[in-house]
Write a structure and sequence with these properties.
Helix 1 packs parallel to helix 7, helix 10 runs antiparallel to helix 11 and helix 14 packs parallel to helix 17. The two termini are about 25 Å apart. This protein has 17 helices and no strands. It has one domain. It has about 450 residues and is mainly α.
Length: about 450
């Protein structure tokens, strides 16, 4: 008999903070290196910064597939461990690694063959295209690092070992930070690589983090035994992973579609594309902590769902919402008070400041609602109903945000376009609350009575 995992016995607030804080700190470091990466690139010229910003939809899609698959893997493994199905948990882990590897191969091909056409649809500026194709090709072809890093970190999270994921993410981020200026500007006798140096620094950091995550799993994750001896893909397990993971992939991939659509809308407004890219770098510093909170929350809910402990599931959700809303309110205050200082990090032109200050102050109003929606959406996934998150995300970004942004762009006033973000987030609050009531009636209130059919 194995000892009861801490996710089933430790007081919820202490458990949630102990699992989330390491992830929040690690993801803050990651957000910091994303910002610093763009700060260094902005020192090349504005076109380099714009090129890196325009790569975001493909990078976001790549991470959506990696993280979404890992969400399904994480929840499925945690639930199996809660049910004491240890052999099944091992099989799930093996199949999850397999499908993440297949996903990497697909994105490597995308980088080789589709980087050029992708940039051609977004800009007519030859220099931006040249920078962008170089940057995106390197990020995609060497993306095996990010796929393996995310996969093995989620396996550590599924058993509550978030401290090690803090180490992997933190060390990878620090390596990126150190290599960025060296490779971009050619210090210590190395050639000046420009945007290629930024991409190379990023993928080296990811590869190092992936290697560490594998080592930590093999050495410290005693509840799972990853082995490919005699391995054959199991279709039923893969389908179960994607039952939870596919909606998460769609939810995050919709963000890629939204970003691409917004870049097309903003193309007629000068430096607005650059401002939009800078906003996403800055908002990552605010959103990363709440994503770290999610990473701590999901295995706790999934484990106690599998163990039939209803009160622990409910307490975890309530505490997570409280902390999540607090994080987002802090972000709102910072962005409202210091927009000029934040933009000044990126070597801005006068045009970028003129467009960017009202953009940041308007978009951040949506943070009031986003904390609740993000936490609730992840709780849906942990309970095996990720389709609710998918519906909310599609409706918010494709049915509200982009149409509203397009209609406001017809006014010819770029400052009005940014209001599409608070409008869309307000709509998502209503939908999230509706689905929360629904899932409470169908699943949460019945946890522990019998095996819940999800």
């Amino acid at each position: 008999m194995q000892q009861e995992n801490k996710m089933g016995v430790m007081p919820i607030d202490k458990l949630l903070l102990s699992m989330s804080l390491p992830m929040m700190l690690a993801m803050l470091v990651q957000a910091l290196y994303n910002i610093v990466d763009s700060i260094f690139v902005s020192r090349i010229d504005e076109y380099a910064l714009r090129a890196v910003s325009l790569a975001f939809p493909v990078q976001s899609l790549m991470i959506a597939v990696a993280v979404g698959t890992a969400v399904g893997l994480n929840a499925f493994v945690s639930k199996s461990l809660g049910e004491k199905e240890y052999e099944r948990a091992n099989a799930i882990a093996n199949n999850g690694i397999f499908i993440e590897t297949v996903s990497y191969v697909i994105f490597a091909l995308v980088g080789i063959f589709l980087s050029g056409p992708f940039y051609n649809t977004q800009t007519q500026i030859a220099q931006v295209r040249q920078y962008g194709v170089t940057y995106l090709t390197i990020c995609c072809v060497a993306s095996f690092g990010i796929f393996m890093q995310i996969t093995f970190e989620r396996l550590l999270q599924s058993t509550g070992k978030t401290f090690y994921t803090m180490l992997t993410q933190g060390i990878g981020a620090v390596i990126n930070l150190i290599l960025d200026p060296i490779l971009i500007f050619g210090y210590f006798g190395l050639p000046r690589m420009g945007v290629a140096g930024a991409a190379t620094a990023t993928v080296i950091g990811q590869i190092v983090a992936a290697v560490l995550a594998v080592i930590f799993n093999l050495k410290y994750n005693s509840e799972l035994r990853v082995s490919f001896k005699g391995f054959k893909p199991d279709g039923s397990i893969i389908l179960q992973i994607y039952k939870v993971g596919a909606p998460s992939i769609v939810v995050q991939a919709i963000g890629s579609v939204m970003t691409y659509g917004m870049n097309l809308i903003l193309a007629a407004f000068g430096a607005a594309q650059t401002v939009f890219g800078v906003y996403f770098k800055l908002q990552s510093f605010i959103f990363m902590p709440i994503f770290g909170l999610n990473n701590g929350m999901v295995p706790i809910i999934a484990y106690n769902f599998g163990a039939g402990k209803k009160e622990r599931v409910i307490k975890t959700m309530k505490s997570s919402i409280k902390y999540g809303v607090g994080i987002m309110l802090t972000g709102l205050i910072v962005m409202e008070l210091f927009p000029v200082q934040l933009l000044s990090l990126f070597n801005p032109t006068a045009e970028i400041l003129e467009i960017g200050v009202p953009a940041l102050r308007t978009i951040c109003i949506s943070f009031i609602f986003a904390g609740f929606c993000i936490i609730v959406g992840s709780a849906f996934q942990a309970l095996g109903n990720g389709v609710y998150s998918m519906i909310v995300s599609i409706a918010r970004q494709l049915c509200v945000l982009l149409p509203v942004a397009y209609l406001l762009s017809l006014s010819g006033r770029v400052e009005l376009i940014w209001w599409s973000f608070p409008v869309a987030e307000l709509a998502s609050v209503g939908m999230s609350a509706f689905f929360l009531i629904r899932i409470n009636k169908k699943i949460i209130r019945h946890i522990g009575e019998e095996k819940v059919n999800t």
